[in-house]
Design goal:
The protein is built from six helices and no strands. With 109 residues, it is mainly α.
């Protein structure tokens, strides 16, 4: 089985591409977009400045939770794992809808 799905991209080793393929659930199109985003950003994807810019337009109840997320470096960027992470890290188990609202506010970053 080809771990890179035949993807080659300047600036990425075969191993880095294979990790991106795994990260993108073996979806070739998602992997190419993800690698292009990494390349454009010059390395690891940094969502924090983009979230800080967007905070003023976010619902106040969700905004305070998003500000708390800025303290974490290991925030997942897939919906299901993000929602679970937010519920557990920010003690939202009694208010799971807030974790979903956070995803809606910042899931496209």
């Amino acid at each position: 089985r080809n771990r890179t799905l035949g993807i080659t991209m300047d600036g990425f080793s075969e191993e880095e591409i294979a990790k991106a393929v795994d990260f993108c659930d073996n979806d070739k199109v998602k992997t190419v977009k993800y690698l292009a985003k990494l390349k454009a950003k010059g390395g690891a994807y940094n969502w924090k400045p983009m979230l800080e810019e967007r905070l003023d337009s976010i619902d106040p109840q969700v905004r305070s939770l998003c500000k708390r997320l800025l303290d974490y470096d290991n925030v997942p960027n897939k919906q299901k794992t993000f929602v679970n992470f937010a519920k557990n890290s920010l003690a939202l188990n009694r208010q799971p809808h807030l974790a979903e609202k956070m995803w809606e506010a910042m899931g496209d970053l």
